[in-house]
Amino acid sequence: MDMNASVSKDATDVTPAASIFGTRAWRILRNGLLAVVGTVFVLWLVLFVTKGRFLKHPFESIASRMAGRDVRVGGAFQLYFAPLKIKFYAEGLSVANPAWATRPYLFQARTIDTRIAPLSLLFGKTRVYWLDLAGGAADLEWNAGHSANSWTFADTGGKPFELPRIDRATVAGTHVRYADPRTRLLADLAIDTVTAIDKKIGKAVGLHGTGRIRDTPFRLVAQLMSPDATLDRGENKLVARAWAANNVIDVAGTLPTATDIEDVPLQTRARGRNLAELLGIIGVALPNTRDYSLRAQLVKHGADYRFTRLAGRFGDSDLAGRLTIINGERLRLQSELTTRQLDIIDAAPFIGYNPDIVAAKGAVAAAAATGAAPQRLLPDAALPVAALQRFDAGLHWTIRDIKSRNVPISYVDLTLALDRGRLALSPLTFSMARGNVASDLIFDTRSRPALDSYDIRLSPTPMGRLLAGYGVDESGTTGTIKGRLQLTGRGDTIHDSLASAIGRVAFIMPHGSFWTRNAQLSELDIGTFVQKMFEHKLKEPVQINCGLIAFTVRDGIAAADPIIIDTKKNVILGRGGLSFKNENLDLAFRADGKQFSLFSAQSPVGLEGYFAKPRIDVISPELLGRAGGGLGLGAIASPLAAILAFVDIGDAKSAACGPILAGAHAQAMRTTKGKPRDDVGNGTTAKSESGKESTADRKKQRKKFLGIF
Hints:
- This protein is α+β, with helices and mostly antiparallel strands.
- Among the domains are: 38-182, no CATH class; 507-709, no CATH class.
- The protein is built from 17 helices and 35 strands.
- The strands form 2 sheets. The chain has a 33-stranded mixed β-sheet that branches. It has a two-stranded antiparallel ribbon with strand order 28-29.
- Strand 34 (605-610) and strand 35 form a beta hairpin.
- Helix 8 (355-361) crosses helix 9 (363-369).
- The protein starts with a helix and ends with a helix.
- 28% of the residues are buried.
């Protein structure tokens, strides 16, 4: 009984399940599945037999709608399963560019043959088993507003097109063109033939080509050093070198993708014959330099190109810091720089000199090379007005020491601001001979010609240290000097602005001593000059009570206003002036004794010539006249009478130091008894100092200066 019951129960359990396959519903489902499979097989068979050639126009229509632009196949077309992978083959494939682009096609290929994983198309991560591409050409462009590019399609939500994963590839004869109107960059590059098997390329992928950035052509060679990782969508080690405007630029780094450099640190190095040529590529005006070599880390962030860890040299000077180039509405440079030692020759371009000429031939030759007349110092190199109005800049530069033979300068601190053509070096401070110089220099090219102002202030500085390179003995000189130069003029060169300048120059000497070692300054012998001032060979320092060397400047002509130095034994007076127009010097100095002297030439010492080549005239007409008078007296009376022509009765009037130390004009000068002085200049010069080069005029004026005594 029990056994029969068990058998009966098993039979009951099997019967319903078996009966399902015999039902009408099952037959419908089965027939439907067979129909689908049959249909798919028929479609597969049709595609396999026809190679899908009839799908050419539907493909063009669907692809064009999805891309938002025309997609065309100019020649043969195949799209089918072979046997389970999708095969796509096309000749003359082209994808159009947006209407704003300068070229009609984003992409063209002579032939393209691929095998694609079917399921990868359903899950949005396309996988290409292998790709053969021949004669490819891509045109990548940004629009003028930099708000759209040619490789972003309508169906991506604004995201750039991404390359699919490719397991095996052969790419030959491929060219890429890249254009960015905002940075004015155009590159036309050829990619070397690439062969990859099983995601392994086995060697670096190279590219080379030419281009133009702004108005400068360049040549580029680059290599993708880790192409295998690139195929796996991993790291991309890139090494590139470019040649442009006599510069060589190297770039190396690891990219997240083959074309993405945003926020990626890249190691850069640039070297060349002139740093101005490098920055000139992007339209930035910079003084010329000698050969340079710089390295830095570059990070592109939006419109900013940030160069950090900057280090290197230009000429014989070092440079470090950081620089940011901002490609906004206006190009702007923002930088923080430091220099341990700046060679004075490398500083020559800051005032318009060619440093190579300065190093080889000197400042006079460098000035002449700018267009200045022979024997001139002020350069005629014009400000790059157009360039200064194209970009803005901010710079803070500190220099610890300047290598100079004669002038001890150190601890330079410069703040530069360039705003739409107005260049301000303010403040510019530095230490000089244990003194400090503070200045504000402004060149405003928005006015035509440029409106230029110079305000230079020298704090009390030891003369022994300041003039040590010019023959002044530090151990015997305790005097100090302070001064100020305030000039305003118009011109696009330093020479032109000073040649039209108005203002005042004044140097004040408080109480102290002064001693020379009779050394040479150019061809001007300071020792001889001072000795002639005091009419005997110096055996001890000159004791200075107070002194003022001041000039009033009108239309580029500086007239003594006044020159007066009161010493323990003498009063030194000066008359004459100098010209910024032709750099002519025409000054006369005389030391009047405060005590009786049996023998004194009482003859002025002339300082004439040019800024670049001053000279002393110690044989003045007054001395010759006095000598002639002495000879006459000796002939008529006796030899002893001849000495009377050289007697100094010692009637020099001591100067009140108050107006002198205040830097007052000549009319404010007083004697120690409070009386106005009538022996100092009043800030006027004769007509011959108007800038003319007439030798006769200079001689006539020289006689007038020297004859007033």
